Amino acid sequence: MSLIKYALMGVLALGSGAALAEGGAERSQQFWEKFRLSQEQIHSNKDQAVVSADAQKRTDVQQKVAKE
């Protein structure tokens, strides 16, 4: 096979690969945005619960000190 045929095969392979991969970057970005959002929702609830528990402990301690 001549060099021209190899070059043509390479161009066609790259062109068809690019056509099949169209929109792949956008789908990847959408996946990571959804993943980050879900992780924030999962972990933020636990953090908020810990913060509210700590705040409750502080108010309990302050009330005990005020009674004394």
UniProtKB/TrEMBL annotation:
<feature type="signal peptide">
    <location>
        <begin position="1"/>
        <end position="21"/>
    </location>
</feature>
<protein>
    <submittedName>
        <fullName>Uncharacterized protein</fullName>
    </submittedName>
</protein>
<feature type="region of interest" description="Disordered">
    <location>
        <begin position="46"/>
        <end position="68"/>
    </location>
</feature>
<keyword id="KW-0732">Signal</keyword>
<feature type="compositionally biased region" description="Basic and acidic residues">
    <location>
        <begin position="55"/>
        <end position="68"/>
    </location>
</feature>
